[in-house]
Amino acid sequence: MALIAKLSRETALYVADLDKAAAFV
After folding, report:
1. How far is CA 16 from the centre of its chain?
2. CA torsion through residues 17, 19, 24, 25, sign
3. The pLDDT of residue 1
4. Is the pTM of this model over 0.70?
5. From residue 25, how far is each of 13, 20, 21 by CA, in Å?
6. Cα 10 off chain centre by
7. For residues 19 and 21, what is the distance between their CA atoms, to the nearest angstrom?
8. Distance, CA of 24 to CA of 14 (rounded, Å)
9. What is the pLDDT of residues 1-25, one digit of tens each?
């Protein structure tokens, strides 16, 4: 369970970074 939560959190951060990068384009 902890591994899944860690992966989902990292994925959410990655998606947030993509959103920020898209905002700059």
Report:
1. 5
2. positive
3. 63
4. no
5. 19, 9, 7
6. 5
7. 5
8. 16
9. 688 999 999 999 999 999 998 887 7
Place of tokens 């990068």: 21
Structure tokens at 21: 């990068």
Tokens (6 digits) for 24: 């700059």
Domain count, the chain: 1
Residue 22's SS3 state is helix
**CA distance to 9, 11, 21, 23, per residue, from 4 (Å):** 8, 10, 26, 29
